Amino acid sequence: MCPQPAVSSAAFLIADPTRATMLMALADGHARPAGELAYAAGVTAQTASSHLSKLLAGGLLLVQTQGRHRYYRLAGSHVALALENLASIAPVPAGGMVRRMPRSREARDLQFARCCYDHLAGGLGVAITQALQDRALVVATDDKQFDVTPAGVEWFNSMGLDMAGLKPTRRGLARQCLDWTERRHHLAGPLGVAFMTQLCAKGWVRRLKNSRAVQVTPKGWAGLKEQLGVDEREVQASV
Question: What's phi and psi for 64, nearest 5 deg?
Answer without folding.
Answer: -125, 130
